[in-house]
């Protein structure tokens, strides 16, 4: 099945099974704004708990805060957002659709990558076990031709980005005959910069109102509270401050479902270090964060690092952790070495001294910062995309049936256990209810008695429930139930008293955290 079709099915699945809804849908929706349904919010909260606890429980020198969305407008002047928080946009004159010029070029580069991969796949099938992929990539004429063309475009692209050359960005699009996906034409406008911040006013009168912004990132709330946290927590460098919160960007080219939204949530940790030690800590946090992602068991091959082609003016190193979405490898987390830019800027604009006295060095300095930043919504999408699966499974009488299953990591699954009485009589529902009442203090359980047992299994598969327990007439006599495992569909008879330990072991974040330390 084409990956585009898989993505469409995933989006439809999110709506049908209560994970994600279009915001204000009864009013025809609001573009690039989404609501999380009853299962989506549970998955999202579990992702946030996994991140938060891994930061503040596993690291003695990382603490958390929750800063306000509204901030003094000078904060955003100091951070550079007022003057430089822009996207390069280009319009197609025929379709009237607007695109990010840099994204169009990135997609062009991805097409050359796909051409190379296709040549490699064909050769691998042709040569079988004797295929030497490394040699093929280094010697095959068609691969080399595609690689050379890609490199030429890439070099032009990097140079244009670093020089903020909007004319060159447009010229790359023109020279490579990039067409509008809607109109199929190459009738492009000039490239223009567009500021992404939402603004509003605060004050009781029109004349006395102050122009303020909805924060486009959560990091600045950490930076302006650096001294508050450091002094009240008696923190010694190196230490970090973690935060989860909403951010807002007026994305003109918002698309790909919840991948790029106007209202989104971030999980960020700013780690403060001594000058000169930042690059070593940058490498350390790259390893820590990649290990965090891979520990979920989605498949190591689905993750990769991607170093930035253009460094932000404040950074001296930056990389992304990318996940293989249905529409290609895309960023889910960024790790940046931000130098001392942020604290120095706030020191300058506020007029307040923001330094740290290092007793070991016997000197005061403005700390350097290593940032780790994840979009909660992108993380959510990566988990859903990596878990969505369509399978053919044995049915009754030797037939073949299809099932849609979310093979979510059990620790993140919205519902951990579904309890299903075989029939709605003979005391089975009462026993099932008792099991739910006993276990609901430990993990999210669901009771379901409607439809055949097969349909109930399929319903739980579709929301990613890792365990189903069936109560039958024998359960009343032997106090045992049949537990069914989502991924393998295997079943076994276990004691009711053993359920807490069997399920708890698989859904415990503690066991997962022990892999990280």
What is the topological layout?
Layout: H1 3-16, E1 20-22, E2 34-36, H2 38-56, E3 62-64, H3 73-79, H4 81-84, E4 86-91, E5 98-100, H5 101-127, H6 133-139, H7 141-162, H8 166-175, E6 192-195, E7 199-202, E8 210-213, H9 219-223, H10 226-232, E9 239-248, E10 263-273, H11 278-294, E11 303-307, E12 317-325, E13 328-339, H12 341-350, E14 356-358, E15 363-365, E16 368-375, H13 376-387, E17 388-394, E18 400-406, E19 417-421, H14 428-439, E20 445-447, H15 453-463, E21 467-471, H16 473-478, E22 480-485, E23 491-495, H17 499-507, H18 509-514
Parallel strand pairs: 3-9, 19-20, 19-21
Antiparallel strand pairs: 1-2, 4-5, 4-6, 7-8, 9-10, 10-16, 11-12, 12-13, 13-16, 14-15, 17-18, 21-22, 22-23
Helix pairs in contact: 2-13, 3-12, 5-7, 5-8, 7-8
InterPro entries: aa-tRNA-synt_IIb, aa-tRNA-synth_II, aa-tRNA-synth_II/BPL/LPL, Anticodon-bd, Anticodon-bd_dom_sf, Gly-tRNA_synthase/POLG2, Gly_tRNA_ligase_bac, GlyRS-like_core
GO cellular component, one term: microvesicle
Family: Belongs to the class-II aminoacyl-tRNA synthetase family.
Q: Structural class from helices and strands?
A: alpha+beta
Per the CATH scheme, the topology name of the largest domain is: BirA Bifunctional Protein, domain 2
- List low-pLDDT spans: none
Question: Biggest sheet: strands, sense, closure?
Answer: 7 strands, mixed
Strand order in the largest sheet: 3-9-10-16-13-12-11
Helix content: 25-40%
Summed up, the helix count is: 18
Strand portion, in percent? 15-25%
CATH architecture descriptor name of the largest domain: 2-Layer Sandwich
Shape: globular
């Amino acid at each position: 099945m084409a990956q585009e079709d898989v993505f469409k099915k995933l989006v439809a699945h999110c709506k049908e099974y209560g994970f994600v809804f279009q915001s204000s849908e009864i009013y025809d929706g609001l573009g690039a704004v989404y609501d999380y349904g009853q299962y989506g919010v549970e998955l999202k909260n579990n992702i946030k708990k996994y991140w938060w606890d891994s930061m503040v429980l596993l690291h003695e020198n990382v603490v958390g805060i929750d800063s306000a969305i509204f901030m003094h407008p000078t904060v955003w002047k100091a951070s550079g957002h007022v003057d430089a928080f822009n996207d390069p946009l280009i319009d197609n004159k025929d379709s009237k659709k607007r695109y990010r010029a840099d994204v169009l070029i990135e997609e062009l580069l991805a097409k050359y990558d796909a051409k190379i991969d296709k040549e490699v796949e064909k050769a691998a099938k042709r040569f079988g076990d004797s295929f030497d992929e490394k040699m093929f990539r280094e010697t095959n004429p068609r691969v080399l031709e595609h690689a050379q063309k890609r490199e030429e475009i890439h070099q032009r692209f990097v140079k244009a980005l670093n020089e903020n050359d909007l004319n060159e960005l447009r010229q790359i699009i023109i020279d490579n005959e990039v067409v509008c996906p809607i109109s199929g034409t190459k009738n492009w406008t000039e490239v223009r910069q567009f500021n992404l911040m939402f603004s509003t006013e605060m004050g009781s009168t029109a004349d006395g109102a102050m122009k303020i912004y909805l924060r486009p990132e959560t990091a600045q709330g950490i930076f302006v509270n650096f001294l508050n946290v450091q002094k009240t927590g008696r923190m010694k460098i190196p230490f970090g401050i973690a935060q989860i919160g909403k951010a807002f960007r007026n994305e003109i080219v918002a698309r790909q479902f919840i991948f790029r939204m106007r209202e989104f949530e971030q999980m960020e940790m700013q780690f403060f270090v001594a000058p000169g030690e930042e690059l070593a800590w940058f490498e350390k946090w790259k390893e820590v964060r990649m290990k965090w992602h891979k520990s979920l068991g989605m498949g190591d091959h689905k993750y990769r690092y991607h170093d930035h082609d253009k460094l932000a003016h404040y950074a001296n190193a930056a990389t992304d952790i990318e996940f293989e979405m249905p529409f290609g490898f895309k960023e889910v987390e960024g790790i940046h070495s931000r130098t001392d830019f942020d604290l120095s800027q706030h020191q300058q604009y506020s007029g307040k001294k923001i330094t740290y006295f290092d007793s070991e060095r016997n000197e005061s300095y403005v700390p350097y910062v290593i940032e780790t930043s994840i979009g909660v919504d992108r993380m959510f999408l990566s988990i859903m995309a990596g878990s969505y699966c369509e399978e053919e499974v044995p049915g009754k009488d030797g037939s073949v049936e299809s099932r849609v299953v979310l093979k979510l990591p059990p620790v993140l699954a919205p519902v951990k256990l579904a309890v299903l009485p075989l029939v709605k009589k003979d005391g089975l529902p009462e026993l099932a209810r008792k099991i739910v009442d006993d276990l609901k203090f430990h993990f999210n359980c669901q009771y379901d008695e409607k439809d055949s047992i097969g349909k109930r299994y399929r319903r739980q598969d579709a929301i990613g429930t890792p365990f189903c327990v069936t109560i039958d007439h024998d359960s009343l006599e032997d106090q045992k139930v049949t537990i069914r495992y989502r991924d393998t569909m295997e079943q076994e008879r276990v004691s009711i008293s053993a359920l807490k330990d069997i399920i708890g072991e698989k859904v415990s974040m503690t066991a997962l955290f022990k892999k990280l330390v």
